[in-house]
């Protein structure tokens, strides 16, 4: 995998990420800045090491990569966090220092939106961290990575092990991870 693969993936996903950026920018009243937010996130992303980018791109789950989850989380953070790189770099000009905003009749609507990509990314990182801390055989590691992180089917396994052996190894590692995480979430 190379930087060309990462660039091609970014080009393929750009429109979807832009929709996500437009949605979150619209929520905070900067809907015309969606392109800028996404481009700032992508510039920051491309400054990361090639090794990290390749790892994010190669780790797949349910048709998405960790790169997708990473970009979506960064978009949301850059739009909503006042200390984010985007917000710090492009501070908005105050509308009017003499305006008394407390006299405005504005409804304060709580944000009840669940950040599913963020939750999924956090869980994936937690599983990866626990997985890497386990003392597993090389075969058990390969089996779990093949099925869980790469989202491959055991019918595509090129080793000599039977599907029954593969599922037993996979389920054993999964149980170890669940015990270590203490049931905080289910796979």
Structural class: mainly alpha
Q: How much of the residues is beta strand, in percent?
A: under 5%
Helix content: 55-70%
Got a strand count? 2
Question: What is the averaged pLDDT score?
Answer: 84
Describe what this molecule looks like in 3D.
The chain has 187 residues and is mainly α. It is 63% helix and 2% strand. It is built from eight helices and two strands. It has helices at 3-28, 34-46, 50-58, 66-80, 85-89, 116-133, 138-149, 163-181, and strands spanning 60-61, 64-65. It has a two-stranded antiparallel ribbon. α1 (3-28) packs antiparallel against α2 and α1 packs parallel to α4. The longest helix has 26 residues, at 3-28. 18% of the residues are buried.
From the structure above, extract its key features.
single chain, 187 residues, mainly alpha
Give the gist of this structure.
This protein has 187 residues and is an all-alpha fold. The chain contains eight helices and two strands; from the N terminus they run αααββααααα. It has a two-stranded antiparallel sheet.
């Amino acid at each position: 995998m190379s930087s060309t693969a990462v660039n091609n993936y970014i080009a393929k996903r750009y429109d979807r990420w832009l929709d996500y950026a437009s949605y979150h920018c619209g929520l905070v009243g900067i809907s015309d800045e969606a392109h800028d937010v996404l481009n700032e996130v992508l510039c920051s992303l491309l400054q990361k090491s090639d090794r990290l980018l390749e790892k994010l791109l190669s780790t797949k789950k349910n048709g998405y990569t960790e790169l997708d989850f990473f970009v979506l989380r960064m978009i949301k953070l850059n739009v909503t966090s006042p200390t984010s790189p985007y917000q710090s770099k492009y501070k908005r000009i105050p509308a009017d220092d003499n305006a008394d905003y407390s006299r405005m009749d504005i409804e304060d609507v709580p944000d009840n939106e669940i950040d599913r990509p963020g939750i999924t990314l956090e869980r994936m990182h937690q599983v990866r961290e626990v997985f890497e801390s386990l003392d597993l055989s090389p075969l058990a590691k390969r089996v779990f990575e093949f099925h869980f992180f790469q989202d491959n089917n055991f019918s595509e396994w090129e080793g000599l092990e039977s599907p029954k052996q593969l599922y037993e190894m996979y389920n054993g590692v999964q149980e170890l991870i669940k015990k270590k995480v203490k049931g905080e979430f289910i796979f």
